[in-house]
Design goal:
Blueprint (H helix, E strand, L loop, with lengths): L12 H8 L3 H8 L10 H14 L19 E6 L9 H13 L3 E6 L4 H13 L5 E11 L3 H4 L3 E8 L7 E4 L1 H14 L6 E5 L12 H16 L6 E4 L5 H12 L6 E4 L2 H13 L9 E6 L12 E4 L2 H13 L9 E4 L3 E2 L13
Parallel strand pairs: 1-2, 1-3, 3-4, 4-5, 5-11, 6-7, 6-8, 8-9, 9-10
Antiparallel strand pairs: 10-12
Protein name: LacI family transcriptional regulator
Keywords: DNA-binding, Repressor, Transcription, Transcription regulation
InterPro entries: HTH_LacI (IPR000843), Lambda_DNA-bd_dom_sf (IPR010982), Peripla_BP/Lac1_sug-bd_dom (IPR001761), Peripla_BP_I (IPR028082)
Length: 356
């Protein structure tokens, strides 16, 4: 038996898998007692159990429902429109996979690419395999028509809201609180004048069509600024949240007002805003502070690095699985809002004395 350092950090299932030379999924199946059902070789099973003993790992299976026993397959389905192939949203699947594994379950993932026929086939295939529940996910938060096949079963809507009354629970980012967080970031830095919006207008109706995200972020922003007695100096709604839209919107704002701070509704809009400000001879954050949303990978590469409110994709996926497994009976139709953390970087500064 090899010696394990006494100051080692908490041993994980991944450590066991590495020691045994198997995948994490195989290690989980062995330690949860399901290796024989899934035809894992006796040699692999022996290696996993010996590795767990060698590294000091204790398998703790989370059982969230007292009645979780016979009749369950310990498999879950994850059906999305485009999450699986999206580099940005792939963390949602990783969060769901990890949460499922922590509960001794396997996650089957399927992608529809927005095609209803493909969606029906995926649902049918998963139900045929008697999955214990289905996570029905969307790439961007939006209203969805819940398929009849899962409406009366055990399912959770992830990043999606039903377009009609539904008994299914919902897991979404807390966009309203994210809007509050963005507005507070500017107020805390001392900004009171010249705050402009890029991506949505001032009025609730002046947002991209069907965008729940924009509408909820605007609610939070308005709530905090109104409470502080701060008026929005200008705003431009953008149908698409892309760099060229952010560039055009910021350039248009500069033709009417002198912004002291921008709240961009997406990091890609902020990227375009940076270019427009630079073309106008304005520096971030010395002349104009910028705060945004999403925590896109480019946010950390922008110069200066962009302060942004992150969409917690990993946590969303994990939360959806937790909600799905929380009760044996049909879940209550509850909306679970996952907090969106603020990533402080270098794009916000106090206004210059002359600007106060």
């Amino acid at each position: 038996m090899r010696e394990i350092p006494v100051n080692r950090q908490r041993v994980t299932l991944a450590d066991v898998a590495k020691e045994a030379g198997v995948s994490v999924t195989t290690a989980s199946l062995v330690l949860s007692g399901r290796s024989r059902d899934l035809r894992i070789s006796a040699a692999a099973e022996l290696r996993v159990r010996q590795a767990a003993k060698d590294v000091g790992y204790r398998y703790r299976r989370k059982v969230l429902s007292a009645g979780l026993s016979a009749g369950f397959t310990h498999t879950l389905g994850f059906i999305s429109d485009a999450v699986a192939t999206s580099g940005l949203a792939g963390d949602m699947i990783r969060g769901a996979v990890d949460a499922a594994r922590e509960h001794g379950a396997l996650l089957f993932v399927g992608e529809t690419d927005g095609d209803r026929e493909s969606e029906q086939k995926l649902i049918a295939a998963m139900l045929d395999r008697r999955v214990d529940g289905i996570v029905y996910a969307a790439m961007n938060t939006r209203h969805v028509s819940v398929p009849d096949e899962i409406e009366g079963g055990r399912a959770v809507l992830l990043n999606a809201l039903p377009d009609r009354s539904s008994p299914l629970p919902v897991v979404v980012p807390d966009e309203v609180e994210a809007g509050r967080t963005a507005a507070r970031a500017l107020l805390d830095a001392g900004h009171r004048d010249g705050i402009c919006l890029v991506g949505a207008g001032v009025d609730p109706d002046d947002v991209p069509p069907g965008s729940i995200t924009a509408a909820e972020r605007l609610v939070g922003i308005r709530e905090v600024l109104d409470a502080a007695g701060v008026e929005i100096a200008g705003a431009r709604s953008c149908r698409w949240w892309l760099p060229e839209q952010g560039f055009a919107a910021t350039k248009a704002l500069l033709g009417r007002v002198r912004p002291r701070a921008l709240i961009c509704f997406d990091d890609r809009l902020a990227f375009g805003a940076y270019q427009a400000l630079s073309d106008a001879g304005l520096a971030v954050p010395a002349d104009v502070s910028v705060v945004s949303f999403d925590d896109h990978p480019l946010a950390g590469w922008m110069r200066p690095a962009l302060t942004t409110i992150a969409v917690p994709r990993y946590e969303l996926g994990a939360k959806a699985v937790e909600v799905l497994l929380a009760e044996q009976r049909l879940p209550a139709p509850t909306v679970h809002r996952v907090p969106m953390p603020r990533r402080d970087r270098s794009s916000i500064a106090s206004p210059r004395p002359a600007d106060r």
